[in-house]
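hey can u check if this looks right to u? its 207 residues, i copy pasted from the old doc so theres a chance i mangled smth
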Amino acid sequence: MRAIDAGLLICHECHQLNRQEISADKQFCSRCGGQLHVRRPNSLVRTWALLLTAAILYIPANLLPIMTVNSLGKGQSDTIMSGVIELVNYGMLPIAAVVFIASILVPTFKLVGIALLLYSVQRHQRMSARQRILMFRFIEWIGRWSMLDIFVIAILVAVVNFGSLASIEPGIGAVAFASVVILTMLAALTFDPRLLWDNTESDDDHE
């Protein structure tokens, strides 16, 4: 049974359960005073907007240099994939595998996974609600690992700075990649997972 079937509304701010007042046009949380909604307003629209923006930025994030290594006056720019290839060439297979999974597979899975969840909700696809909620929780869990490349670049920029001998500079691809990670995290936050359980009645978000 859903909470709404029992006449209960949960506050999005403090997670307090409140008894639904059928006759009230607007209802506020009894604990924090936040406005209550049956479902997050415009959840699908906001999630689609964030997801599509992330998908657009995903292209320059992979095509543009993510960092430039300057050594003895010579600079070499690397994208995410070229960096993985360089690590493989140097025999650092475990590190290459970690970077490939965290920086390419994870963002791709998040983009595709959230898009599938949105499509399944709007089109009433034949997919178990439990399967979809497990996918959503997995997407939330793996999201934190997408920032691995950015953390590594930030550490290298701070540590490797020997003037004209050697230095590392972040590239524009790092900005695009960080934006993709942040936008996909926000998309997962704006999506209301309760729609996975009650989307058989309407394609639209309830307010």
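The beta strands are 8-10, 17-19, 67-71, 74-78, 166-170.
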